[in-house]
Input
Amino acid sequence: MPHNHATCPSTKSDLAPTAVFIDLEKFKQVNNEQGHDTGDSLLRRVTAVFRSRIRAGDSIDRLGGTIRDKGWPVAFSMGVVSCRRAPDDLELLFNKADLLMYEAKEADRDRILQHVSDEVA
Output
């Protein structure tokens, strides 16, 4: 999946830069079987949950095409990459998180794979 070239802005934060790629498993099923309004509601709910748990200045973006509290049959496969030092090119961080997400999907779905290091490798 192509991404725009991104560089890490200078920041006063001592927190490690982190990229998280999430696949909302069975979203297409919800969208097709329960309608696009329900699919949109699901996406709004997931976004609200994530926004309530991130720092100010962080962002959530939806890339690509197409929470069980409402009976939605969804699960998450996530790839999480954190480095202690920001890479010169955030593309490396995004690519590693994307790769881990696909590994999580292939392993058993509904799981999180995480990589933490000094640098993205």
In short: Residues 90-107 form the longest helix (18 residues). The longest strand covers residues 75-83. Residues 28 and 66 are 6 Å apart (CA to CA).
